[in-house]
């Protein structure tokens, strides 16, 4: 994915003495106001009132204070990075005081970046691009229809990288990797879960573009479609004896085939979700979901066409 404009600094204080100006919040009638996700999310009694910047973000998409979702400034986000264990994990790996940058002007691209020492691509530790958005299934799934709607924290991009590490025979490059990973996905998911609960969303959503990505996320995420979940589990089962780098690359190259028919199987683009509440969470825990998942897993058998993979590699490596 192309690397966008540099993130804005948030940990350094503004010493210019200038006051940040914001546009006036436009007037809305109460029926529209209380239909907005932020104000209709079912927050319990005693929950903190939304900030003016949060209301402005939710109403208009404007974010002059560069807060994450109009809500989280640098200190608030730092507290959550600490609570998730992410900063401790970075410190354990030799990065005790990462530089934080936020870029939150675009509601569809709320970006958090952590750097090792300086804001440079080669010093990137973490980059995540998030969005709060309604999600509608593309077709009926379980009890849900195309009309069903869920408020989700959408992961458009997430990378964790070790800027000083190198790939080795024992730790080869996974498809799409620029640098070796940090092994900090669990605290990163913990951070996203904290943000999601505080923002009163139904869950976290991601569409993994590689087999290894789906495998890593499967620690906490499930495919919304139980048939997709069963198919994924069948792939993981049947390729469990293949090194992960090789398995993921072979699937990317279109070399996964149905063991019975020999038909090629393309990597499916489907939604993995971490459900936090409501009908979404109940469905993913339901007997009907488990039964459909288990049927799909039992019905599929996969294998890699290694002859085709070697042929594809030969073409790929040609100058």
Structural commentary:
With 319 residues, this protein is of the alpha+beta class. The protein has 2 domains: 1-11 and 52-206, no CATH class; 226-268 and 276-319, no CATH class. It contains 11 helices and 10 strands. The protein has helices at residues 30-33, 52-60, 74-84, 86-92, 185-198, 211-217, 226-238, 244-252, 278-284, 287-299, 306-316; strands at residues 8-9, 99-103, 110-115, 124-135, 150-160, 203-206, 222-223, 256-258, 272-275, 302-304. It has an 8-stranded mixed sheet with strand order 1-2-3-4-5-6-9-7. α3 packs across α5. Residues 1-35 have low confidence and may be disordered.
- Share of helix among residues? 25-40%
Task: Kindly estimate the percentage of residues that lie in beta strands according to DSSP.
Answer: 15-25%
* Spatial ordering of strands, largest sheet: 1-2-3-4-5-6-9-7
- pLDDT < 50 stretches: 1-35
């Amino acid at each position: 994915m192309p690397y966008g404009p540099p993130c804005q600094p948030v940990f350094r204080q503004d010493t210019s003495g200038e006051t940040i100006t914001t546009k006036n919040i436009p007037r809305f009638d109460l029926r529209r106001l209380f239909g907005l996700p932020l104000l209709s999310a079912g927050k319990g009694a005693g929950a903190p009132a939304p900030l003016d910047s949060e209301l402005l973000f939710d109403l208009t998409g404007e974010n002059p204070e560069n807060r994450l979702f109009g809500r989280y400034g640098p200190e608030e986000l730092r507290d959550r990075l600490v609570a998730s264990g992410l900063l401790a994990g970075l410190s354990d790996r030799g990065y005790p005081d990462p530089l934080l940058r936020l870029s939150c002007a675009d509601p569809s691209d709320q970006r958090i970046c952590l750097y090792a020492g300086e804001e440079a691509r080669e010093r990137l530790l973490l980059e995540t691009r998030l969005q709060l958005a309604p999600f509608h299934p593309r077709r009926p799934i379980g009890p849900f229809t195309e009309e069903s709607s869920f408020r989700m924290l959408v992961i458009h991009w997430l990378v964790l990288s070790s800027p000083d590490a190198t790939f080795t025979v024992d730790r080869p490059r996974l498809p799409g990797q620029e640098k070796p990973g940090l092994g900090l996905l669990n605290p990163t998911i913990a951070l996203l879960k904290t943000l999601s609960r505080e923002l009163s969303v139904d869950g976290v959503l991601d569409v993994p573009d590689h087999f290894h990505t789906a495998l890593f996320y499967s620690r906490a995420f499930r495919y919304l479609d139980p048939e997709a979940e069963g198919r994924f589990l069948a792939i993981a089962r049947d390729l469990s004896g293949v090194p992960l780098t090789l398995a993921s690359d072979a699937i990317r190259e279109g070399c996964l085939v149905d063991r019975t028919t020999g038909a090629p199987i393309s990597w499916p683009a489907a939604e993995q979700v971490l459900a936090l509440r409501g009908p979404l969470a109940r469905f993913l825990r339901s007997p009907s979901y488990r039964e459909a998942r288990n049927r799909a897993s039992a019905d599929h058998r996969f294998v890699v066409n290694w002859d085709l993979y070697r042929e594809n590699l030969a073409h790929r490596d040609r100058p």
